[in-house]
Amino acid sequence: MTDAGKEMLAAILAMGVLHFTMMMWLYMSRMRAFKLAGVTPDTATFATMRKLPDWALNPAANYNNLTEAPPLFYAVVIVIVLLGQADMVNVTLAWLYVAIRVAHSLWQSLVNRISIRMMLFAASWFVLAAMIVRSGWQVLT
Length: 141
Description:
Layout: H1 3-37, H2 46-50, H3 54-65, H4 70-82, H5 88-110, H6 114-140
Helix pairs in contact: 1-3, 1-4, 1-5, 3-5, 4-6, 5-6
Transmembrane segments: 9-28, 72-98, 119-137
Protein name: MAPEG family protein
GO cellular component, one term: membrane
């Protein structure tokens, strides 16, 4: 495997670290919110969850977001590496995707103004689309 291929696969691992970090943030913020509300995980209901403060809900929403588009990123990176298309452009795109998703996670969890979050989400999709189109073009030509 080339060094570029290893760097691309490392981007997948970085996304895994982000996902794990957001899971821990979700858990810690939810447990803190439960404690402040006098609720235990055994007595929490769906109605209780909706009443949690934003600082406890936002990390959970972001964790869910990380199960949507990022799995496609994982697949695209693996395909690019398997097809021998890992080069500096794709490495740069992969790490740019990771950086934007980190920014998106932080923004959604800490600030969550929708207009900026939408721009970060769209930017991550443009980067992912560039990887898909570039790889598809290389396969077809």
